[in-house]
Design brief:
alpha/beta; Rossmann fold; seven-stranded mixed β-sheet; binds S-adenosylmethionine
Length: 273
């Protein structure tokens, strides 16, 4: 059975769960692999002087803050939109703490029906969003609509089905990874589906930039994600708790010895409206 996807139905959460998700997003964004990836997204969006930029499904606004740091010196402005009011409230708080409020406007709204006129922005980014929406092609069409002709669109989704981990117990590793891919919330093949979706939505000059992220350390978001995958698998009864804990221990030992090696492919599709 698929675990309900808290990212696609955030309205159903209580306040404590909401705060946990905000903390999770902020901690994940600060991990070395996600920092590198987010910087790459900013480079691909390539904001020009005066750029008006939109981050769709902005969560706690980490990417908005990165974009605002660039926009600040370029005389531009960043908008962040998210369906969850608690993420927007947290995003405003974080931007204020970072002294970036003058360069970012946060709004509650649905990516499937963006509340902006056609051609409003010079560039749009949507990261880790499409795997959580009911109609991803519609979201890409909306992103196209609100970008001026020729403006840039950068889409990114991860794909848990591409995760590789060096672990001596291959059968157990396959069970954990497959369970995580097929049963955790969200569409975990969304990364590989991004290209087809972008083309179906009419993205022009589209190109696929695969970002392969290799992790050797515990602080990486991928290592943390593996620990959660093992826990989820034992909580779902797919593996035993003892074998799940032993699986994590083995990987932690590898981290201690410097031999831990895990990777994932992030699919980035860039194009124009
Ligand atoms: C996994 S989080 C990613 C947040 C942020 N983009 C990041 O990369 O850290 C997915 C975000 O999409 C938002 N979301 C889900 N469905 C949405 C929709 N239909 N419209 C706008 N935002 C949506 C969620 O509230 C959540 O903040």
């Amino acid at each position: 059975m698929k675990v309900p996807d808290a990212w696609s139905s955030p309205a159903a959460l209580d306040v404590q769960e909401e705060m946990c998700m905000v903390d999770f997003l902020e901690a994940r964004s600060a991990s070395p692999d996600q920092m590198a990836l987010n910087k790459r997204l900013v480079d691909l969006l390539a904001p020009a002087a005066g750029a008006q930029l939109l981050d769709v499904g902005c969560g706690s606004g980490f990417l908005c803050r990165l974009l605002a740091s660039a926009a600040q010196s370029l005389g531009g402005h960043v908008w962040g939109i998210d369906i969850a009011p608690h993420f927007i409230a947290a995003a405003r708080r974080c931007a204020a703490q970072a002294g970036l409020s003058p360069w970012i406007t946060f709004e509650v709204g649905n990516a499937q029906a963006l509340p902006y006129v056609d051609g409003r922005f010079d560039g749009v980014v949507a990261a880790r969003l499409l795997l959580h929406v009911p109609d991803p092609v519609r979201v890409v069409r909306e992103a196209r609509r609100v970008v001026r002709p020729g403006g840039r669109i950068v889409l990114m989704d991860w794909d848990f089905g591409t995760v590789a981990v060096d672990h001596p117990d291959r059968a157990l590793t396959r069970r954990i990874l497959q369970w995580r891919t097929d049963h955790r919330g969200g569409d975990n093949w969304s990364g590989r589906q991004l290209w087809g979706r972008a083309l179906r939505a009419g993205l022009r000059d589209a190109r696929l930039v695969p970002v392969v992220s290799v992790s050797h350390e515990e602080e990486s978001s991928l290592a943390q994600s593996l620990w959660r995958a093992a826990r989820g698998a034992w909580e779902a009864g797919v593996i035993g708790r003892a074998e799940g804990e032993a699986w994590i221990d083995t990987l932690r030992q590898q981290i201690g010895q410097g031999t831990f090696c895990a990777s994932i492919v992030y699919f980035v599709v860039c194009g124009r409206s």
